[in-house]
Amino acid sequence: MKVFSNFISYLLHPLFIPIGGTVAYFLITPKYTPLEIQSASILPIFILTVIIPIITFLILKNIGLVHSISLDTIKERKYPLYIHASILLLILYKVIPNNYVSELYFYFTGLLGATIACILLLLFNFKTSLHTVGISGLLMYLINLSIHFEINLILAISLFIIFTGSIITARLYLKAHTATELVIGLFIGLLSQLLTVRFWL
């Protein structure tokens, strides 16, 4: 069980949520999108949300500001979350406007809102489950896309419901979070995407 819990925690790491939603959009959308525009969106988003955070994590670890990839303490979470919020702002102002896609724009707006909510909770010494925030946000985004494009995504949505349950179970088993931290993370992820729906659905 421990091996499975660690595996699912790495597989569904919040680091992969922005690029996951981006790829999901281009796979799902019935709109014609030239390959050049897809590449111009996916590649910079992958670099900014996966490669750069890994590099910054290694830097922060070397200077002693973080100690593990799980960011166990509230103090360790501050700087990665600040950096993540800055990267999301950069994507919203520089990457997406070059190849404007409203569905992606508001997906990243929701991600930014969720990140800000997690930062605000840190001020109250509350450590939200970032895994749960990420996977539930992506789940809600898939539901929104299904409604928006009137496409049956029941298999994908069912799979992500299973993923959401799996990550909650894994984080509880590993004692990485309390039940309250996981539930709050779940609501932040769902609401952050749900609240943006009125602007593009």
Question: How would you summarize what this structure contains?
Answer:
This protein is mainly alpha-helical and 201 residues long. It has nine helices and no strands.
Could you walk me through the main structural features you see in this protein, from its secondary elements to its overall organization?
The protein has nine helices and no strands. The protein is mainly alpha-helical and 201 residues long. The protein has one domain. The longest helix has 28 residues. It is globular and about 45 Å long.
DSSP E strands, number? 0
Stretches with pLDDT under 50, minimum 5 residues: none
Rg on CA atoms, Å: 16 Å
Number of helices: 9
The biggest beta sheet, please?
none
How many angstroms does the end-to-end distance come to? 40 Å
Mean pLDDT across the residues is: 89
The total domain count is: 1
The oligomeric state of the chains shown is single chain
Percent helix, as a range, is over 70%
Structural class: mainly alpha
Strand content: under 5%
Q: What order do the helices and strands follow?
A: HHHHHHHHH
What is the 3D shape?
A: globular
Keywords: Membrane, Transmembrane, Transmembrane helix
Transmembrane segments: 7-28, 40-60, 81-98, 104-123, 181-200
Protein name: Phosphatidic acid phosphatase type 2/haloperoxidase domain-containing protein
SSE map:
Elements: H1 2-11, H2 17-28, H3 35-62, H4 74-95, H5 102-123, H6 130-149, H7 154-173, H8 179-194, H9 197-200
Helix pairs in contact: 1-7, 2-3, 2-5, 2-6, 3-4, 4-5, 5-6, 5-8, 6-7, 6-8
Keywords: Membrane, Transmembrane, Transmembrane helix
Transmembrane segments: 7-28, 40-60, 81-98, 104-123, 181-200
Protein name: Phosphatidic acid phosphatase type 2/haloperoxidase domain-containing protein
